[in-house]
From TrEMBL:
It comes from the Eukaryota. This is acetylornithine transaminase. It is found in: Mitochondrion. Pfam families: Aminotran_3. InterPro entries: AcOrn/SuccOrn_fam, Aminotrans_3, Aminotrans_3_PPA_site, Class-III_PLP-dep_AT, PyrdxlP-dep_Trfase, PyrdxlP-dep_Trfase_major, PyrdxlP-dep_Trfase_small. Pathway: Amino-acid biosynthesis; L-arginine biosynthesis; N(2)-acetyl-L-ornithine from L-glutamate: step 4/4. One of its GO terms (biological process) is L-arginine biosynthetic process. It comes from Tripterygium wilfordii (Thunder God vine).
């Protein structure tokens, strides 16, 4: 039997009559589980939050408490997830979900992969955190592996995708200053593209195309020009102007709606950057690390960056980010230029070694390509004939189903039928990013549920 205690204390003290202290036990696929929720606050249904088919019980209590004690930054789906194994997730009432969201393209090895669990538990027993004041073995081992299997010569670790992009911004500016010592106005500006997503901190946010994300927090970092994703001519002209420190581009855009760059576009960015001395940064936070059946998305194009940023799946669910750079760039970065207390700690790095060792195996990558092809064909068969379905696109296990209406009713109906999928783009794309270990029968089930739920798109009218 496992047990979980949640203590959600508010400093505003309420009368004992208002204090909820609930203790629930239930049977799940993994045995008997007890959850004790001690919420020292008046618990009422949070406005507008209704649980899905699971409704009530511990899930209801968690949702209500969340509405009282967390800053409201997330429009969460009304599901509480309390355990997982492989591609299945369970709520506290034991309801099962097939996971085609992977914690937003993070859980590449699914949930509870035994080698990952061993890497985490072994390392937790040995050493979790030391800071970057000291050396640690897993950090150096992980960096050695990343360097061996990529274009890069050196690695900087961060804790997330947005932080990886912040570091890349700083490295690009430092590189430009350092490599043009006599230049009073070295290039400090950036190019980013429509539908891009690079993160939520003020530098990465400045590179993120959706105005809705940026405008409440302006001024964000100045000097960013957004160009049409794929516009070779406009990119070349702007880069030739000599003010661009770096071009940030996702070889395949995830959040933006699953749009793939063309080879010509990436090649032309590469040659324009080379001619002007600008740096080319590939943000592979979502599309990298095996998601499309290549270890790096840019391998599919044969175009190589100066800097690549990574995060999401690298540590199998623990927070990590990484910036991979060539020696030319690394040589311009000195002690104190950048840093992080937590980044590259022994625990996350040992977890990441276990993930990278699996994902970088050519047989594993080939299986992702094969399953991606299989899934796309199934989706075409089952969904392609529906008049709301405009396009089914993507590579490997990064697939988007573009609709002519909002995808939310379909995503909600799938969830109520036990399938977790995401939206992307302007909310009109269903994003499918299952764990890379998903089986063909599971993909078949996912496609069937999506098909069964298609009528929800008409019901909502
Ligand atoms: C391409 C890309 N870059 C950066 C980020 C930001 O990563 P994080 O949420 O870890 O900060 C994301 C997150 O979705 C992403 O998809």
């Amino acid at each position: 039997m496992s047990s979980l205690q949640l203590f959600l204390n508010r400093t505003i003290s309420l009368s004992p009559a208002n204090a909820a202290d609930s203790h629930r036990c239930f049977n799940s696929k993994r045995g008997r589980v007890c959850v004790r929720a001690c919420v020292n606050a008046d618990v009422k249904a949070a406005d507008g939050v209704k649980l899905g088919a699971s409704g009530g019980g511990v899930s209801q209590e968690v949702v209500e408490a969340e509405g009282r004690v967390l800053v409201g930054t997330y429009a969460r789906a009304p599901v509480v997830l309390s355990s997982g194994k492989g591609c299945k997730l369970y709520d506290p009432e034991g309801r099962e979900y097939l996971d085609c969201s992977s914690g937003i393209a993070v859980n590449a090895l699914g949930h509870g992969d035994p080698d990952w669990v061993k890497a985490v538990t072994d390392q937790a027993n040995l050493l979790t955190h030391v800071s970057n004041v000291y050396y640690s073995i897993p950090q150096v081992e992980l960096a050695k592996r990343l360097v061996t299997c990529s274009f890069a010569d050196r690695v900087f670790f961060s804790n997330s995708g947005t932080e990886a992009n912040e570091a890349a911004i700083k490295f690009a500016r430092k590189f430009q200053r350092f490599s043009r010592p006599g230049d009073k106005q070295p290039p400090v500006e950036f190019i980013s593209f429509t539908n891009s997503f690079h993160g939520r901190t003020l530098g990465a946010l400045a590179l993120t195309s959706k105005e809705y994300y940026r405008s409440p927090f302006e001024p964000v970092m100045p000097g960013v020009t957004f160009l049409e994703y794929g516009d070779i001519q406009a990119s070349r002209e702007l880069i030739q102007g000599g003010k661009i420190a770096a071009v940030f581009v996702e070889p395949i855009q995830g959040e933006g709606g699953i749009y793939s760059a063309t080879k010509e576009f990436l090649q032309s960015l590469r040659s324009a950057c080379d001619d002007a001395g600008s740096l080319l940064v590939f943000d592979e936070v979502q599309c990298g690390l095996g998601r499309i059946g290549h270890l790096w998305a840019h391998e599919a194009y044969g175009v190589f960056p100066d800097i690549m940023t990574l995060a999401k799946p690298l540590a199998g669910g623990l927070p990590i980010g990484a910036v991979l750079v060539t020696e030319r760039i690394a040589s311009t970065i000195k002690y104190g230029d950048h840093g992080s207390t937590f980044a590259g700690g022994p625990l996350v790095c040992n977890a990441a070694i276990s993930v990278l060792d699996k994902i970088s195996n050519p047989g594993f990558l080939a299986s992702v390509s094969k399953k991606g092809q299989y899934f796309k064909e199934l989706l075409l068969q089952k969904l392609g004939g529906n008049p709301h379905v405009k396009e089914i696109r993507g590579w490997g296990l990064l697939i988007g189903v573009e609709l002519d209406v909002s995808a939310s009713p379909l995503v909600n109906a799938c969830r109520n039928s036990g399938l977790l999928v995401l939206t992307a783009g302007k909310g009109n794309v269903v994003r499918l990013v299952p764990p890379l270990i998903i089986s063909e029968p599971e993909l078949q089930r996912a496609a069937e549920i999506l098909q069964e739920c298609l009528p929800s798109l008409d019901e909502s009218k």
